[in-house]
């Protein structure tokens, strides 16, 4: 399933596998001036390729290497041999060998599927990607993944955040996320002059500084509560129950890979240099 919308000269494609007549677990790609930011998942390749038919495309920039952001890389590269696929250096082995380098849990195979291989080129922090009318600055923003980056167009105040910013208040986290790095990366982008923020899996926001600061404050306050209870000797199970409430559907959908416990553990583990309460 694909839905297209327009924000000035930025085209946003919201993409999801259709299951029982509905799109499930949406992700977004953004097209601007010959550049595509992310490329959806394997199940939406044909729709995205059709939507881009006849449109000049010079670059695909992957904000990170998760399967719901690199799905059309390979098919687009096979169809248009002049495309450069750009990503953080840590992402390149995954782009080239997604099945070997990024095994997928059952829920990830169900909702997003296996991407085809693609050959990428590296871009690093503070490098620029130039299109005909714009210069995009690369900002390294780890936490959601070690290879995560954002793209910033300073003249227009456009920020493409991938999955660094997700709306709402987290009550669960994936096992491999680093919550303190996420907070640091959010602080880094919150200091930029931003007119429009284009997330990879949340609604577009105009003048998003208030939303960014609210997100940072929530995560920091939540983390302080986790550490306070941890220092008092409370178990991870007890902290999770006290701060995160009852079990939520995403925990059984992902078989525990995305869970309230992982959120609590990330605050403790990454602040305590690996010393985690296992009680």
Give a structural overview:
The protein is α/β, with parallel strands linked by helices. It has a single domain (2-228), classed as Ribonuclease Z/Hydroxyacylglutathione hydrolase-like (Metallo-beta-lactamase, Chain A). Helices cover 32% and strands 25% of the residues. It is built from ten helices and 15 strands. The protein has helices at 45-51, 73-79, 92-96, 98-101, 106-111, 179-190, 209-231, 236-244, 249-253, 260-271, and strands spanning 2-7, 10-19, 22-32, 35-37, 59-61, 84-87, 120-122, 128-130, 135-140, 149-153, 158-162, 173-174, 196-199, 205-206, 258-259. Strands 1-2-3-4-5-6-7 form a seven-stranded mixed β-sheet. Strand 5 (59-61), helix 2 and strand 6 (84-87) form a beta-alpha-beta unit. The longest helix has 23 residues, at 209-231. The N and C termini lie far apart (44 Å).
Number of structural domains: 1
Low-confidence segments, given as residue ranges, are 273-279
CATH-defined architecture = 4-Layer Sandwich
Question: What is the CA-based Rg, rounded?
Answer: 19 Å
List keywords for this structure.
Metallo-beta-lactamase, Chain A; 279 residues; six-stranded mixed sheet
Question: Strands, helices and their partners?
Answer:
Elements: E1 2-7, E2 10-19, E3 22-32, E4 35-37, H1 45-51, E5 59-61, H2 73-79, E6 84-87, H3 92-96, H4 98-101, H5 106-111, E7 120-122, E8 128-130, E9 135-140, E10 149-153, E11 158-162, E12 173-174, H6 179-190, E13 196-199, E14 205-206, H7 209-231, H8 236-244, H9 249-253, E15 258-259, H10 260-271
Helix pairs in contact: 6-7, 7-8, 8-10
